[in-house]
Amino acid sequence: MSGAQSAEAIRVMVVDDHPMWRDAVERDLANAGFEVVAVAANGSEALARFPAVRPQVVVLDLQIPAPGGVEVTAEIVRQDSSARVLILSASGEHADVLGAVKAGAVGYLVKSASREELVDAIRRVARGDTVFTAGLAGLVLGEFRRMSEAPSSPRSAEPQLTDRETEVLRMVAKGMTYKQIAQRLVVSHRTVQNHVQNTLGKLQMHNRVQLARYAIEHGLDEE
Amino acid sequence: MTRDAVWSSPAAIDVENRLFRVLAVLRVVVLVNAVALNLYRADNFSHPAALAACIGAMAAWTGVAIWGYAVPRRRTLLLLAADLAVTAALLLATPLVKGPDFNTSVPGFWTMGALLAWAVHYRWAGGLLAGVVLATVDLVVRDDISQTVYGNAFLLMIGGPIVGFMSASVQRMATERDLAERSAAIAAERARLARVVHDGVLQVLALVQRRGRELGGEVTELGRLAGEQERELRSLIREEAAVVSPGHDQALDLVAELGKLERSESVTVAAPATPVEMPATTVGELVRVVRACLDNVAMHVGHDEPAWVLLEAFPDRLELTVRDEGPGIPPGRLEEASTHGRLGVALSIRGRIADLGGSAKLATGSFGTEWEFVVPRRGREVHQ
């Protein structure tokens, strides 16, 4: 595939504490026509360089020296809501992946994914799409189930998925591609993409509401 | 930990230091009290000069004792014996100073300084010994033993061991807490190190796997092996992370167990982030069912063909889905297998699910094969 549309090369920052990986990813991305504007080996480097280089996409390893991937994701999204964070994780620890997605990451890949998958994922998140693996869809489904099960106080309405959103998410979790889902449900590819994006949006919105409520309850909102 | 180690641990010495600091304050208070009472009743004394000497001795010894007990290494048997001897001597001197017929001894409550020092340092046995010595001396020097005198002696006898016992208990608890805190810190640090090491290994394995695929040839095999090891290690980590709460030793985490079936090239397992605890036998059966489905995929679709497992946990039931994108099972094949007496899919999958009180649904066609199992979560409320 020829991705060298240098006129509008996607600006990427790579955050990984493993030099071998950082170099491999950087080289792959450069070959695919992306502009790697910065690399960082840990959370503080990432946060220091992010405002200066303003990448469109941040490829982020979750297990990095403090601040960790979840905090870095939250801070990046807070500074620039148009920045897209794509998680690339080796250990795939469920709680961390879910934490990063709740904090605002829009995609997740395991490190054993192929170069083509990575390049494709970066293109998609840069376009504004979400990159869901079946594993991530399972985590998100489980999280919505957990929230609907939890005894909710009347004032906090837990976010709920519509039946369609649940149906689409289940299909993603069962490994179906957006194209297959669109065919099965007789809707457009874009509609499927929107449903998936909405589920993520609801989860992130709920996370922000929770954080804000926590801050208000604990008097952290008074500067 | 040996008995001696308990008393010489930093935490125990810290407790002792604190007790001796309080005791130093107490010594000053009882000294002021003793001096004031003696001066108030100075006209009772037959030998005012001797009284002055006694008061001087008490004040001087209080100073020596506070200085001496301040540092652990000065708390020797010599110091404690001298403390007890000075106190006993002052008690013995009382009849000489006040005349044989007296009510209150010259040191009075000041005697508790030595008693408590023995109790703090030598625990209940020290408290008892000092109590016995002081009570005996106090009784010996008196002509007649009134109710009050007896009461005081009795208090000395029981107060010493009680304070000694409590001092020992506090020291022991401090030592144990210290030990517990240290082992918790060690365990946390070990877990953190393990995470770092594991993550590093996973990174390298993933890299080898990725490069192996790209380079082709012999290296592909290397990459495949790295992928296998990556999966093994990952499921090991997941197993370690899934802490099954104590009390239900028969419970297993279905998420962790299903995770072991994952193959990075072919099998994907999607599940909730939180553990799904079920009785071990149920978990075993469900894992066998899923494995049977995956074996079918490997046999009829292809060894490296992709398959997906999805676990959804509801309050009252579990839903398990196993899906592949193979050519589907030809109509009649399952029935044919069971009529030929083969232990086919019908028995091994449907039977196991039925035994768990669940239901199995099969959808198959040109789109692939999809098994959907619904299993009730019985007795879940018991665990909560």
In short:
The complex is a heterodimer of chains A (223) and B (384). With 223 residues, chain A is of the alpha/beta class.
Explain what this protein looks like in three dimensions:
The complex is a heterodimer of chains A (223) and B (384). Chain A has 223 residues and is of the alpha/beta class. Chain A folds into 2 domains: 125 residues, Response regulator (Rossmann fold), CATH 3.40.50.2300; 83 residues, Winged helix-like DNA-binding domain superfamily/Winged helix DNA-binding domain (Arc Repressor Mutant, subunit A), CATH 1.10.10.10. Chain A is built from 9 helices and 5 strands. A 5-stranded parallel beta sheet of chain A has the order 2-1-3-4-5, sandwiched between helices. In chain A, helix 8 crosses helix 9. The relative contact order of chain A is 0.10. The N terminus of chain A is likely disordered. Chain B is α+β, with helices and mostly antiparallel strands and 384 residues long. Chain B has 12 helices and 7 strands. In chain B, the strands form 2 sheets. In chain B, strands 2-4-5-7-6 form a 5-stranded mixed beta sheet. In chain B, strands 1-3 form a two-stranded antiparallel ribbon. The longest helix of chain B has 69 residues. The two termini of chain B are 38 Å apart. Classes of the chains: A alpha/beta (223), B alpha+beta (384). The interface between A and B is large, with 37 and 42 residues.
Q: Please, what is the CATH homologous superfamily of the largest domain in chain A?
A: Response regulator
* Number of beta strands of chain A: 5
Strand order of the largest sheet of chain B: 2-4-5-7-6
Using the CA coordinates, give the radius of gyration of chain A: 18 Å
What number of structural domains do the residues of chain B give?
Answer: 2
